[in-house]
Amino acid sequence: MELLRFATAGSVDDGKSTLIGRLLYDTKSILEDQLQAVERTSKARGDEYVNLALLLDGLKAEREQGITIDVAYRYFSTTKRKFIIADTPGHLQYTRNMVTGASTADLALILVDARKGVLEQTRRHAFIASLLRVPHLVLCINKMDLVGFDQAVFDGIREEFRQFSMKLDVADLTFIPISALGGDNVVSRSDKMPWYQGPTLLHHLENVHIASDRNLIHVRFPVQSVIRPMSAKYHDYRAYAGQVLGGVLRPGDEVMAMPSGFTTRIRSLELAGKPLAEAFPPMSVNVSLAEELDISRGDMLCRPGNPPLVGQDLDAMVCWLSESTTLQPGARLALKHTTRSARAMVKQLHYRLDVNTLHRDEGSAQLKLNEIGRVTLRTTVPLFFDEYRRNRHTGSFILIDEATNATVGAGMINGPAV
Amino acid sequence: MSYELSHLEALEAESIFIIREVVAELDKPVLLFSGGKDSAVMLHLAVKAFAPAPLPFPLMHVDTGHNFPEVLQYRDARVAELGARLIVASVQEAIDAGRVAEEKGPRASRNRAQTVPLLEAIEKHQFNAVFGGARRDEEKARAKERVFSFRDEFGQWDPKNQRPELWNLYNARHRRGEHLRVFPLSNWTELDIWQYIDQEKVALPSIYFSHRREVFRRDGMLMAWSPYLQMLPGEEVSTAEVRFRTVGDMTCTACVESTAVSVEQVINEIRASRVTERGASRADDKFSETAMEDRKREGYF
Fold first, then answer.
1. ipTM of predicted complex
2. Cis before residue B52, ω within 30 degrees of 0?
3. Architecture of domain B7-191+290-298
């Protein structure tokens, strides 16, 4: 059984909570005591119907204010796949949360109200999904029951979104007409839209091909730590612990260690004493090498003919996540990239991007909370990186405020700064 | 070759990455080990993460003094087998020293009282990373907690001021006196845990499987009779075939009627169950909608 992570975006009005509630309910993932708790709370609040959104609002402040503040993670499974939903609130001020949810998602699900069509918010969510390079995008045209299950409405929205999405980088785009309230095309096929021949939402989630989304070409193994047992029994044991972020490693393969550039061969791959014939993303393994090289945390193993980019000057898109501070040229921040930590200075803010219109504001002097911009950074030590579009893990970094230790920025590398 | 991982392989890879990341970035970690199934799985993953080297951190049990004897036996056997160091933070000692007030009455539980000795032990040993076995599917406040969850110098959790967590880049930075709670099982569900126990043959305390026990009904739950619980008028002890879905303090952990004697049979029961594990077996979460959030804010697990 494979694991699929998807992020949902939309506001309360789109019926997002109803849709998630429907997916959980129809796959028997909501259990009786959870439903009873929601019923009790709905009743106490004086709601006229059982409010499935309460199932998703976890924190006190959210219940009091009837809003979703934070990313909530939900779990369900079918016989085919296990699913992790990163449920993110849709309002403008929560761009931060959608960026967070999308960073680990294989698929983004965006809801559109069939009566309202493509809104500013729809474009914003689609843009963020494409910026974070979520490999699969699904547009659910919801509330089809309120437009008489009319094919023309669906076709119109699809066409309008297609036009817009040509400006984005979306590899795989799917449109599904649904009614979350009635369950049409969510888990079971709707008999009210015979003109729609495509899959139901659940069928799509169960079958969309995600195995080839990972980069299996460029070997990238950032070293997390060195395992040396220091015992008589394992006197000579020395292995590099880490998670494979790209490519396929096999015993006997020639590898190059960054930054030294020395090459050797993989002697063995294993985890907890179990030898492995190969290792690929996202496996966590121990790599032993034929020769002893001086390698430590933050270094990277790759194939000799296929190294990552190396440098201290980065051209990147940054989403600013802090409420209390702004990103400005000259700012000094801590940076974490793969298993490497460094300090970084913001050399230049090229432009701020309007996430609604994709307009570039080149006169911008700073990035505030939820704003996205293109920057040049200089780091204190060289990083071993790839363009984010080639590898989401070796192409991403976070920025940390050294005074408060808060995570204040999320970065996606365009390439070396020129 | 398809290069596909099963969901258990993917979850294991993520958890091992998290555990290794903590040890690489924080010099004083400790792993909370209650002897329950989640902490048993977490310990199993931690051992795998560093093998063949020994576990690079001690274990800690917050002992309410109201334990199931089978669980203590299991805890000690596991600790001995690994040659690990076990720190016991005792609720009884905290009560005896007057640092915690004992709840009174038939519904008294030491569940909430665990927070004080836990925070005291963290301070005394200067731990800066505390591994916990909590899962996001357990409870709605936990569904919103980070994998690396920051605690201030009072051990408090501030749910509205959490660090965004992106990709697999975890921020372990903190000041002296502050610490991180780290939850490597965040993305696991109850069913995943049992499937993994089955796959890896993880040993568990015997009370997770069907056995005969003296029980009584309270608030719709089946409580184990013990000298630590006062009976209410009308409550009657009887004998039943039961197993536990969660294992905590004897005063707030209920059992379910079951005939499952193997992991496979437990998995089949869970698949058919219509009630969550906390709903079936935790009296402590029934007080209010936000009981867990309230405890967590104070520094609870």
1. 0.94
2. yes
3. 3-Layer(aba) Sandwich (3.40)
